[in-house]
Structure formats: structure tokens, C-alpha cells
Amino acid sequence: NAGVTQTPKFQVLKTGQSMTLQCAQDMNHNSMYWYRQDPGMGLRLIYYSASEGTTDKGEVPNGYNVSRLNKREFSLRLESAAPSQTSVYFCASSGTRDRGSNEQFFGPGTRLTVL
Amino acid sequence: GENVEQHPSTLSVQEGDSAVIKCTYSDSASNYFPWYKQELGKGPQLIIDIRSNVGEKKDQRIAVTLNKTAKHFSLHITETQPEDSAVYFCAASVGGTSYGKLTFGQGTILTVHP
User: Fold this and answer.
1) What are the helix (H) ranges across A21-110?
2) Model confidence over B53-87: pLDDT tens digits?
3) SS3 A114
4) How far is Cα B92 from Cα B103, in angstroms, rounded to an integer?
5) C-alpha dihedral (B16, B109, B4, B102), degrees to nearest 10
């Protein structure tokens, strides 16, 4: 049981390049999330998927797109990277909306630098 | 939308002392308040959470208190140990369809000196 896995761990891009961050979970969770973490700002929600087949914007969606490929996988795409997107990106997943299932499990993160 | 403020940003204590981190939130509809611990190079991990129908919750050396009237909640760590050194985040969310949408505080770097 690997939990939440993310690839790659590190990535350096040039301004204008595109890339996709991959996330997978093996806990049969319904909901998945993408956050970015910047110094002094905590974690901010980019996009989330409440269930397979649905996605919705979070607090900072501009410059990103997501795909909920199936129940296990949720990818984050940067179409044209900008230096302001330099950050650490975390994927998370959680169970259902039932009480007691709200814990979000986080992956190890992807450290992205845009030059 | 929800806004969560967390203080202090850094906290340094001696081993065995207590540590307290405080958060305030703005949306009176928020009803779920988790606390996460993040160790260096890792993703955050839930350590304790509390719902709005409860005023206090304890788990060994960790406790969380909630004051819904004042819209603030706090994390209390007693008998701190060096392995408690990490970044701690509070968060808040509203139930229903937004149940999973957490708004995080800015984080507190806790250092426990042996």
C-alpha cells in the first residue's frame, strides 16, 4: 500500500515550457486535490476532484489544468510555465463525505523550478 | 471565501515544555478543523482534527480546543520532544459539498531544543 505517489520528485522548466505532474492513490479514495506550497503562505488549493469524472477550481487555478483520468489518478498540467509557478506541488486524496473520512493523505511533493 | 490566520510563525521551546499554536478563521460556516504536521522534505500528515460540535479533543500529548463564538482554535503540545520539531499547519473547511476544500493557515515552524 503506497498511499499517494507523485512523479516527478524534481523538475526544472524554462519559461513557456509545458509539463504534467502525475499523481496516483491506491486507497480507493473518491476525492483528490492539488495544492501548491510557497514559503510563508501555507498550502493553497489549485484544483480538486470530489469524485471520478468531476473537477473544480480551488483558490489559485489560473495557469493550470487538471484531468481525473480514473479513480486512482489525477494529473496537473502547466501549459505554459511561468516563474511565478515555481513552487512545491502536493497531491492529496481523501475518502467520502461521510463523517470520519475527511482526512486528506498527502503525497511526497514535486519541487518545480521555472527559470 | 474562508481566511485562516495562524500564529506564531516560529516557535522555539525547550524539551519538556508545552507549545501552543493559535488559528483564527473568518467563515462562521466552517465546521471541520484539522491540524497537520510536515517534516522536512515530506508531505503534511494529519495529527488531530476537531469538528464544530466538540470544544476539545485530546490524543496523548496533543490537544486541540475550539471556540466557535470567537472563531479560533488552538493546538497544544505538552512534554515536547525533539521529534516534535516540524512545521504545523491548521486548516478549516465547510461541510457538505465543500467538505474536502481545506483552507490552510500560513504554518508554524516549531523547534524543540534538547
Assistant:
1) none
2) 878 999 999 999 999 999 999 999 999 999 999 99
3) strand
4) 5
5) -100
Q: What is the pLDDT of residues B27-58, one digit of tens each?
A: 998 988 999 999 999 999 999 999 888 789 99
C-alpha pair distances (Å), B72 with each of B24, B25, B58: 4, 6, 17
User: Going edge to edge, which strands form the sheet with A19-25?
Assistant: A4-7, A19-25, A74-78, A64-68
Distance CA B75, CA B64 (A): 5
Query: What is the C-alpha to C-alpha distance for residues B66 and B20, in angstroms, rounded to an integer?
Result: 13
A94 and B45 in contact by Cβ < 8 A?
no
DSSP state of A38: -
Which residue of B43, B100, B106 is in closest CB contact with A102?
A: B100
> What is the rounded distance in angstroms from the CA atom of residue B27 to the CA atom of residue A110?
31
Cross-chain CB nearest to A48 (options B9, B51, B100): B100
Q: Is A65 helix (H, G, I), strand (E, B) or coil?
A: strand
Nearest to B70 by CA among B52, B87, B89, B57: B52
Does any CB of chain B come closer than 8 Å to the CB of residue A59?
yes
Largest CA distance in chain A: 44
- Distance, CA of A98 to CA of A103 (rounded, Å): 11
